[in-house]
Design a protein that fits this description.
By secondary structure, this protein is an alpha/beta fold. It has three domains: 3-37; 41-153 and 297-366, Response regulator (Rossmann fold), CATH 3.40.50; 156-291 and 378-399, Rossmann fold (3-Layer(aba) Sandwich), CATH 3.40.50.2300. The protein is built from 13 helices and 14 strands. It has helices at 3-15, 28-31, 54-70, 91-103, 115-128, 156-169, 187-198, 224-231, 244-256, 274-277, 300-313, 319-337, 344-351, and strands at residues 41-47, 74-75, 78-86, 108-111, 132-134, 148-150, 176-181, 210-212, 237-240, 262-266, 288-291, 365-366, 372-384, 387-399. Strands 7, 8, 9, 10, 11, 12, 13 and 14 form an eight-stranded mixed beta sheet that branches. A six-stranded mixed beta sheet has the order 2-3-1-4-5-6. Helix 3 (54-70) crosses helix 12 and helix 4 (91-103) packs parallel to helix 5 (115-128). The radius of gyration is 24 Å and the shape is globular.
């Protein structure tokens, strides 16, 4: 029974002149004070607010804020004071963001777009003993952490999902050109996962990797010579790994170079605003990507999330927003489990007890390394009226 209904029942009994006691309808909130009287909590959100990382930062903020708006601005029944700090574009700026939030007494942290920042703040988080529910950056080599959890993915999983799929999907005479940005964070993770699942010795992926520049804002000719070298080998398939502005430029320069074959990549290649930037739009049609989320997934949690997101932002939600939305949901459950006076350490322990998450991506749960065990999906760029959209094709694998 709600607090309001319980109060009304007591009023009615009093009016009837009876001394009966209403039992069996109290809530946890009532036992330790009403939800209205619970102490507010501070949550710190770390995300880039300028530069090439800003679109992802905006999505991380959008997803977390949306969960709060749909839940009366409460987590664990408590009012939330959300403190947003600029992640910047390197480990130093990320550390400054963490330091500032810790000084303000946050109960938990979330966000983090860059893997370089995640590595840079690792020790500070562990030493502070304040849980971080990371909602994007998730390098494979981030191991043996106690206070860092991630609601996104591990980078090698996208490569593994596609490697396993393409190994069986491609014909014996197909050849794959692997084109990747040099020294990009997470690139080696993706490549290793792809090769392991496809088969290291498979002749279809035997050609050396073509490495390109790693600029987040490449010129309109940045990839031309590298693409020409790759196409000289006459591949039928291109496997690549780019995101944001770099992804749009790579796709356009690849098509301008004359490649008409199939393109496969981790989902970041066509995620967010990338499809809006590709001209002509037809260059993106048919691109297939692997990701842990598709905005057209047909489950109750996604219908609620995607509908609310589209209504608020007039755009389809991305995996970045979804993972941040889930980070808020995870914190909601953990704070409630942590008891009447939650501390960061108690919230961290509670995170290990929350079990399965009913998510827009489908049900998932944390595994031993504190990352999701989840489904991966194959998506294809198709026309959706006047715009392009990533359309769900099928499930690829459950990884994690």
């Amino acid at each position: 029974m709600s607090q309001m209904n319980r109060r009304r029942a007591l009023q009615l009994l009093a009016a009837l002149g009876t001394g009966a006691v209403v039992t069996g309808c109290g809530s946890d909130a009532e036992e330790s004070g009403t939800e209205e009287s619970l102490t507010p909590v501070k949550i710190g959100l770390i995300a880039p607010q300028a530069g090439p990382g800003k679109p992802i930062g905006d999505e991380l903020n959008n997803g977390f804020q949306l969960y709060l708006e749909l839940n009366d601005n409460r987590l664990g029944g408590r009012p939330v004071d959300l403190l947003v700090a600029d992640e910047g574009d390197n480990a130093k700026s990320g550390q400054a963001a963490v330091d500032g939030l810790l000084k303000q007494g946050v109960l938990a942290l979330t966000g983090v777009a860059s893997s370089a920042v995640m590595f840079g703040i690792r020790d500070a988080i562990e030493q502070a003993r304040v849980p971080l529910i990371g909602s994007n950056a998730s390098p494979t080599s981030l191991q043996s952490v106690v206070y860092i959890w991630r609601t996104s993915y591990v980078l090698d999983e996208a490569g593994r999902a596609l490697g396993r799929y393409l190994k069986d999907e491609l014909g014996r005479n197909d050849r794959v050109a692997i084109i990747l940005p040099e020294a990009g964070v997470g690139v080696e993770d993706v490549l290793r996962g792809f090769r392991q699942e496809f088969g290291e010795s498979d002749p279809r992926i035997a050609d050396p990797v073509i490495w390109t520049s790693n600029s987040p804002s490449p010129s309109k000719t940045a990839y031309v010579s590298d693409i020409a070298r790759a196409l000289d080998r006459n591949p039928s398939v291109v496997f690549c790994f780019y995101s944001g502005t770099a992804a749009a430029e790579f796709i356009m320069q690849l098509r301008d170079g004359g490649f008409k074959g199939a393109i496969y990549a981790p989902g970041f290649l066509t995620e967010g605003s990338v499809l809006e930037s590709i001209r002509p739009a037809g260059d993106a049609l048919g691109i297939r990507t692997a990701l842990n989320y598709s905005a057209d997934l047909n489950n109750a949690a996604n219908r609620r999330f995607a509908s609310a997101y589209r209504k608020k932002h007039n755009a389809s939600p991305t995996t970045y927003a979804m993972a941040s939305y889930d980070a808020a949901k995870v914190l909601d459950q953990a704070i409630r489990l942590a008891g009447s006076t939650p501390t960061p350490q108690e919230v961290n322990l509670a995170l290990g007890r929350i079990g399965q998450i009913d998510s827009p991506r489908g049900a998932w749960q944390f595994n031993q390394p504190r990352t999701p065990q989840q489904k991966w999906y194959l998506r294809e760029v198709q026309r959706d009226g006047q715009v392009l959209s990533n359309v769900l094709v099928n499930e690829l694998a459950t990884l994690g």
